[in-house]
Amino acid sequence: MTGRKIFWLIFIAIAVRAAFYFSVVFPQAPLLDDDTDAVVNMLEGDRLHWHLANSDYYAAKPPGFTGLCFITYKLFGFHPNIILLLQFILAGFVPCLAYLIAKRLIDERWAVVAAVLTAIHPPLVVYSAMRLADFNFYVPLYLWSFYCLIRLYEDGSVKNALFAGVVFGCALLFRSIIMLFFLLAAVWFILHRADGRLQRTKLTVLVMAVSACILAPWWIRNYNLFHRPVLFQTDKWFAFWAGNVPGSTGSLYVGNDVSVWGKHRDGFGEQFFKLDEIEQGEIFRQKTIGYFYDDRAGFLLRIVKKVFYFWYFSPHQGQDYPLMWMMIYKIYYLCIILPAVYFIVFLLCSVKRRDFLPVLFYLFFLSFTAVHAAYFTEGRHRFCIAPVLLICTAGGLGMMSVRGRLKNIL
């Protein structure tokens, strides 16, 4: 029975995206982002680099998506639709993972609802069918990582630890914002129960070791290039500055398609553009810390605002879309967030503190909120937690219904 449900969930997710692609995008090519420029540079024989802050950055982002595109285009030629097909396939597994996670926490029928909501969630559909982007790879990997943690808790075998390490390492290769969740989850995995703590510590070390092996080539390349450790990316201080500069809304844009960088670029001086990305990052870091000391209250207020913008909408979000579409999406979002909040509050008030899975949900939401509150937040950033949020939406709807009921918590 579960196999049949998995099949139909995959079918629904891929069918919805195919329908959107052929009705809205085709015969045009899917949209490409700045990673494509980096891939083209490599295909032409140049080193991997991105253009950021009017400079060339050689480790601006983790290399997962650009590396995947480079290998694919090198083998099969420059055919973006191959990457689009991979996005469709990965998107098909997202509702399956949502279902497998949800049925451990809520009633079976509402686990199916969670999976269907994930399969047809408009932002996930639009992004995976219209745009080639790392987002369409790290969202499935983040959810897969979440599931791997649950499986490791249920069955603390070496095989599950090795597999979790591979998935975690791949997730970090595509986008490192999940690192805080990994660290918090690792601590919770070890400490949540006194018995078996040594064994869980060994499993955690094994997971981290395997993840480190996945990331090691990137670390070695960066050390050879910069003569210092660069774990993931060098644009973190630019993101830190952009989200905290006075007058910003926590977004990369200040309105009317004017970027934060475009507004403040002239204030950095010509000498700034002669520095390498590590030195520029230090300037961004120093400036941002200076904003804090100059106006602590204003700095902290911007942090608080970004928490709100992450969970709702920033002032400039949706400016590229028709107003009516944005209004419809806001109504839809309220329809999914209110039951989710109800379910999260219910868990917070009703579940024992040491139950593993509910706390894992809390850590997931809190870690992503904290990272985006510290750096900058765009509407698409909230989409990366959408599958887990929609599980809570289904749980909330189940709790509100007459026949809905909560299963035993792990």
How is this structure best described in words?
- The protein has helices at 2-25, 34-43, 64-76, 80-102, 108-120, 122-130, 135-154, 158-174, 179-191, 197-226, 236-242, 260-264, 277-294, 296-311, 323-350, 356-374, 379-383, 386-400; strands spanning 31-32, 50-52, 55-57, 131-132, 253-255, 258-259.
- The chain has a two-stranded parallel ribbon.
- It contains 18 helices and six strands.
- The model has no long low-confidence stretch (mean pLDDT 88).
- The longest helix is centred in the middle third of the chain and has 30 residues, at 197-226.
- It has one domain.
- It is mostly helical and 410 residues long.
- Helix 4 (80-102) runs antiparallel to helix 5, helix 11 (236-242) packs parallel to helix 13 and helix 15 (323-350) packs across helix 18.
Keywords:
mainly alpha; two-stranded antiparallel sheet; 410 residues; 6 strands
Q: Which percent band covers the strand fraction?
A: under 5%
CA-CA gap between termini:
23 Å
Mean pLDDT score: 88
Please give the radius of gyration in angstroms: 22 Å
Quick summary of this structure?
The protein is mostly helical and 410 residues long.
Question: Helices and strands in order, then pairings?
Answer:
Layout lengths: L1 H24 L5 E2 L1 H10 L6 E3 L2 E3 L6 H13 L3 H23 L5 H13 L1 H9 E2 L2 H20 L3 H17 L4 H13 L5 H30 L9 H7 L10 E3 L2 E2 H5 L12 H18 L1 H16 L11 H28 L5 H19 L4 H5 L2 H15 L10
Parallel strand pairs: 1-4
Antiparallel strand pairs: 2-3, 5-6
Helix pairs in contact: 1-4, 1-5, 1-6, 2-3, 4-5, 4-6, 4-7, 4-18, 5-18, 7-8, 8-10, 9-10, 9-16, 11-13, 13-14, 14-16, 15-18
